[in-house]
Design brief:
It comes from Sediminitomix flava. It is built from nine helices and 23 strands. 26% of the residues lie in helices and 29% in strands.
Length: 387
């Protein structure tokens, strides 16, 4: 049976529509039509009472969720816990993120994520490999013993196992020769991060095919008038995407506002969550301890080690604290990440032919429900009125 969500205020990922309805069938969006249109007789009609309807959030950097941290527990069970914890806050698709670790762990993680992909399980789009080829000066919270120089043999092993699994790999481009960087670019979306690259080194990397930067402003060479660094090179490249953590700690809201003014259309939201939906106070990982201080995780040396925000938190912060319109923020949370991964013809919009992954918000940006492939999987409302 077809389902109609009627009387919606829709952020489609292309434009804002008032008083419209969407028709869903077999997990896909069949059509988006004016509210006044007559509904076919064989439809279940649900009156949304003018609520906001957004594309399901797509988070391309998720370290953990619930009680699980993926690099600490490389398993399908951990991925399931992570997915369910983030789903409660509107994330319908995500990339479990593996931080700097051994080659054996990387290959194992690729196999685990491949199983999830083959089973179409837990909203997994693939994996984000964050490290281990970083600049030690910008290691952040990554364990130093795993940070290493890129070697062709190891890269080829990772490519062989992870070519269809690793969707993003974050590297310090200044550590790579042209040939090794091209090897990665030919197989993955390559992102610059944990890097102390000069402006010229970063521009070279973008010219070789790097198309993204990881958690803009954090763990990278900063902008100043004489040395623009990786941040300046990113601002100077109109076609390069950037993920950003909008929690008010990793980046001041004014910095987010400035970045958006320069990179609208390419700047998207990530949680970079170590945990969400769980009050973890501290945990030990790979020989060092992380502590939760004010909702963010820090190493004993005081380095930020990921957030505990959700994509919903980031969306609210962008609207309420940065001053970006909900229409644009919906794109930052879904449309632009889909474009970055090259899945923009299937995910990230409310449009005929797209997967019916949807988020329903009330007028105060409170989450009312989450819909995955046309089925409501999370609900915070008492009842939707059946028309």
């Amino acid at each position: 049976m077809k389902k109609i969500l009627s009387n919606c205020h829709i952020m489609t990922g292309e434009r804002e529509l008032w008083n419209h309805s969407i028709i869903i069938q077999d997990g896909k969006i069949l059509d988006v039509v004016p509210y006044a249109s007559m509904a076919p007789e064989d439809c279940e009609v649900i009156d949304m009472s003018g609520k906001f309807l957004l594309p399901g959030f797509i988070d391309l950097q998720v370290n953990g969720g619930g009680s699980e941290f993926f690099t600490h527990n490389i398993s399908k069970e951990a991925v399931e816990v992570m997915y369910k914890s983030h789903l409660k806050f509107g994330t319908t698709r995500f990339l479990p993120t593996l931080i700097s670790t051994s080659k054996e762990n990387i290959l194992n993680a690729c196999n685990v994520i491949k199983e999830c992909q083959e089973e179409n399980a837990y909203g997994v789009l693939g994996m984000h490999l964050e490290g281990p080829y970083f600049n030690m000066e910008k290691k952040g919270a990554h364990y130093p013993k795993f940070i290493r120089e890129p070697q062709e043999n190891e890269l080829n092993e990772i490519i062989e196992v992870g070519k269809e699994v690793i969707k993003i790999i974050t590297v310090a481009p200044e550590k790579f020769s042209d040939d090794l960087l091209k090897l990665l670019v030919n197989n993955f979306v390559v992102s610059a991060g944990h890097s102390n690259a000069t402006y010229d080194q970063a521009k070279r990397a973008f010219n070789l095919g790097i198309k993204k930067v990881t958690h803009l402003f954090n763990a990278m060479s900063q902008f100043n008038s004489r040395n623009p660094g990786l941040v300046g090179a990113f601002f100077d490249e109109k076609d390069v995407f950037g993920g950003i953590i909008v929690d008010g700690v990793h980046c001041d809201f004014a910095s987010v506002r400035a970045a958006h003014a320069l990179k609208k259309g390419k700047l998207f939201l990530v949680s970079d969550a170590s945990f969400v939906d769980n009050d973890v106070e501290s945990f030990e990982f790979d020989g060092f301890q992380l502590k939760n201080i004010g909702g963010n995780f820090y190493t004993e040396a005081g380095n930020l080690a990921g957030s505990s925000i959700s994509m919903l938190d980031a969306v609210r912060n962008c609207v309420l604290n940065v001053g970006i319109s909900l229409e644009e923020v919906a794109k930052m949370a879904s449309t632009y990440p889909a474009q970055c991964l090259g899945i923009q013809d299937e995910f990230g919009k409310i449009k005929a032919g797209y997967v019916a992954d949807l988020v329903v918000l009330d007028n105060n940006l409170n989450l009312e429900s989450v819909i995955v492939e046309g089925k409501e999987v999370v609900s915070y409302k008492e009842e939707m009125e059946l028309a």
